Amino acid sequence: MEMETPLQAMARLKAGPRPVIGCLPLYPPLELIHGMGLTPVVLWGLSDAVPQVPDADRHLQNYVCSVARRLAQFVIRDGKDLIDGLFFYNAGDTLRNLPEILREGRALAGASPLPLFRMHVPMTSPAQADSSGYLKQEIEALIRSFEKQYGVTFSETRFAESVFLYRRMRSLCLQLEQAVAEGRMGFADFCRTLMAANFLEVSEQIALLASTLDGIGPPSATDDASVRVVVSGILPPPPAFCEMMDQAGFVVAGNDLAFMHRSYAHAPETWADAADYYVKFYKSHFPCSTLLFSSDRRVDAIIDRVRQAGAKGFVFVGEKFCEYEYFDFPYLEKRLRDQGVAVLAVEISMDDTVGMETFRTRLEAFKEVIDGGGRNGNK
Amino acid sequence: MEINEKTRAGKHLTELLVKTYTDIHTRAAAGAFVVWGAIIVPAEIFAGFDNVVFCAPESHAAVCAAKGVGAAQCLKAEALGYSMDLCSYARIDIGCFSDGGKESPTMGLPRPHLLVSNTNNCSLLVKWFDVHRRDMDIPHFILDVPFCYGPQQEKDRDYILTQFGDLIQTVEQLSGQKFDRDRFYEAAAHTASASMDWKRFMACAEHRPSGITVFDSFVQMAPFLIARGTPELAAHYKILADETEANVKAGIFPVPDEKYRLLWDNIAPWHQLRKMSTRLAAMGANIVAAPYTSCIGAVEGSYDLLSFEENDDPLWYLARVQNHSVCPMGMDLRLSSMGPVIEKLGIDGVVFASNRSCKVFSVMQMDEQRRVREQYGIPCVMIDVDHADVRKFSQENVYVRLEALLESIEAKRAV
User: Which of A26, A156, B302, B369 has a CA that sits 20 to 30 A from residue A261's CA?
Assistant: First the structure.
């Protein structure tokens, strides 16, 4: 199946009847936005759509992560006509500064002003006083903002229908992840599919994921040389890196990628109303370094995931300048090594579009460490 | 004017800092309940307890950097696996804690019973304090303060107030001590009084030549961070303001031959205070103020002090000023608080210090710089700094740019 590029997909969505809402960061209230007749698109994973960032560089220093720089380039110039509004919530210090920067950038680029929607997700720890009431207010205010801006109306019934669609989409992601773990699908193909799905409307996402799932074969014959690993980070590794992992004989038995497993791992089964849904959604979200309240659970959840996946190795793909990940990593690494799990840490930066071959040697060496049952690889 | 042994305020500052850090250690050793908190966490709340000690790791990291041991502490954290891209305050603090405070000018900080971070200055403080939570297995209270793109909203203030109440209960439960509202009220009043004298001190920059440099205000800010809510803080700022006003009257100025009046936008480069103030003074340049220090006691988007009498509830007052410190507010608010400083102080040029260790302060400076140029018609320059890691500071690159700024000011004057 020929996949659209992100820009093609978004141009098609923009031409449709529903206003397109660019969302950031990774865990926005997608069901709510969709249920109100809008199309949410998480503006993440834009590396293919936005290879260069000259306009963003007029507004952001070069020590800002590539995610924010590409996002800025997209909103200011490359995709400036492809969205009808922007939604932000508070995860990330750079991101919280972005709304006004994007407003300035668009004005300078001659683009029309965009409606901005914001929500503050409480970050208090679970041991503290319950902040559900505040989040409910935020959700209700967000609904009113969308209604006012786009003349749409909210209904719990349509919200529930959207929840059903997103649950189906997440379930398919999990099934594909399982297919990768079983060696039925390469990690590179999996990442490529999910990256493409990100820029589709949820029904289209379901169609793409379901057809991909239908198209993959039975488990390949057990390859004794394969090594099971869990991959972690914010974004999936670059395609070339993923292909090298497949070629080197790694089976990605699970992932802890913010863009992937952390996003689709969990959603509430029951809820009283939309506000209640999101109280549960964030409270029980798969732990992420950017969701500060989930910190207590994060390392144990990852270790549990590694254990359940039967992984011998853990590949951390760090996004250069993503401090959220880097504050957690030393402790996570220590805990994993204590469990006898081998750890490989690589860092991907904005400029890593060439020279990816240097990672091949590291991946091969890492596999040898695990194969040899070395210091951190007790096979 | 740097910490100068010849000035009463300079001597008093040294005595106050030594006394405060000594007290912290002494009281902790004697069994006080120890809190490590982010600098914007309202320390006055802890003063409402009989025996709670408040320590500010950020301020301690700045002291380490100013005393020349910042990079050495950073190296220790990096050896533990912490990326060099992380905030240098955090690396200093983690490095320092890793070996029990060796090389720290204050012998480190006493081991805490409770960590209190916040999300307003920067949410990475939460990640930083989580490192300690894991290491020490102690509770970590997160004070979650919504970012302001406009004036602080009532719903957000209520949310903050609820958390203040929760924090008080948490300390009561963990320390076994009872919160005393009267004692707390006194503490808030001390801070409010100190803030008024701080503003009096800052106002000495309005004189031409200025009665102060920004380096004075950076250094003199320390007590506000570690001794808030104490009578000593109020007494110190009274001494500082009285003496500085007297100096202005007597014609004593830190840069007597002041040709260029500049504004600094960001946290201090702690490792460069003496060098930079000396070198700039030799060029007739005086950085007279910084939003970072002028914002104390104000609300988001404002330069003016918020009157404590405006509302009798000190908790309300403290909640109202939770967004004061530049970082927890958006670009429009930052510019609206910077504008009066530029106009009131007759600023000739602005130095935007792009600080690799403080993205939350720095990311948006490129647009701020453009808007200040457009709105006020004054030259601006952006320099690269790191507030506490001297290894990320290129002295000559910075001075080339600062000299270019002064040339731009001259060129503008010649027109």
Answer: A156
CATH number at residue B141: 3.40.50.11890
Residue A60 belongs to domain spanning = 6-154
Task: Identify whether residues B145 and B291 lie together within a single domain.
Answer: no
Chain B contacts in chain A segment 247-266 (CB below 8 A):
none
Amino acid making up residue A45: G
- Angle between helices A202-215 and A187-198 in degrees, nearest 10: 160
Neighbours of A178 (CB within 10 A): 14
Pairing of the two strands B114-118 and B33-37: parallel
Tell me which chain A residue has its CA closest to the CA of residue B149: A100
Residue A227 CA, distance from chain mean position: 25
Residue B50 sits in the same domain as residue B164: yes
Are the C-beta atoms of A157 and A234 separated by less than 8 Å?
no
Q: How many domains does chain A have?
A: 1
Q: Which two tokens stand for residue B128?
A: 């930083």
Asked, for residue A144, whether it belongs to a domain, the answer is yes
CA–CA distance, B76 with A263 (Å, rounded to integer): 35
Residue A365 CB partners (closer than 8 Å, separation 6+):
none
With contact defined as beta carbons under 8 Å apart, do B50 and B175 qualify? no
User: What is the crossing angle of helices A187-198 and A156-181, to 10°?
Assistant: 160
Which contacts qualify for B65-68: CB closer than 8 Å, 24 or more apart?
Answer: B65/B92, B65/B270, B65/B271, B65/B387, B65/B388, B65/B389, B65/B390, B66/B219, B66/B270, B66/B271, B66/B273, B67/B105, B68/B271
Range of the domain at B88: 8-179
Check if the beta carbon of residue A347 is closer than 8 Å to that of residue A235: no
In a domain, B200, yes or no: yes
| Chain A: residue whose CA lies nearest to B167 | A128
Task: Quote the minimal CA–CA distance from B53 to chain A in Å.
Answer: 21
**Residue A88 at interface with chain B, using a CB cutoff of 8 Å:** no
Task: Kindly give the residue spans of alpha helices, DSSP state H, lying in B99-153.
Answer: 124-136
CATH number at residue A117: 3.40.50.11890
B100-156 tens-digit pLDDT: 999 999 999 999 999 999 999 899 999 999 999 999 999 999 999 999 999 999 999
Q: How far apart are CA A63 and CA B16, in angstroms?
A: 38
Q: What is the DSSP string of B22-56?
A: HHHHHHHHTT-EEEEE-TTS-THHHHTSSSEEEE-
Taking the C-alpha atoms of residue B244 and residue B212, their distance in angstroms, rounded to an integer, is 8
The closest alpha carbon to B199, from B316, B303, B329, B299, belongs to: B303
B191-211 confidence digits (pLDDT tens): 999 999 999 999 999 999 999
Taking an 8 Å cut-off on Cβ atoms, the answer to whether A293 and B142 are in contact is yes
- Closest by Cβ to A93, choosing from B90, B122, B156: B122
CA pair distance B314, B312, nearest whole angstrom: 6
- Residue A173 pLDDT exceeds 50: yes
* Last residue of one domain, picked from the residues B151, B179, B207: B179
Structure token digits, residue B331: 């670009």
User: A-B interface: how many C-beta pairs under 8 angstroms?
Assistant: 139
Question: Is the same domain home to B169 and B193?
Answer: no
Task: Report pTM.
Answer: 0.96
Domain end position, chosen among B137, B159, B179 = B179
> What is the ipTM score, two decimals?
0.95
With CA atoms as reference, the chain A residue closest to B362 would be A61
Structural domain count of chain B: 2
pLDDT tens figures, B47-83:
999 999 999 999 999 999 999 999 999 999 999 999 9
User: How far is B57 from B40, CA to CA, in rounded Å?
Assistant: 12
Q: Which residues of A74-112 are buried (b: 16+ CB within 10 A; e: fewer)?
A: bbbbbbbebbbbbbbbbbbbbbbbbbbbbbbbbeeeebe
How many Å apart are CA B287 and CA B88, to the nearest integer?
24
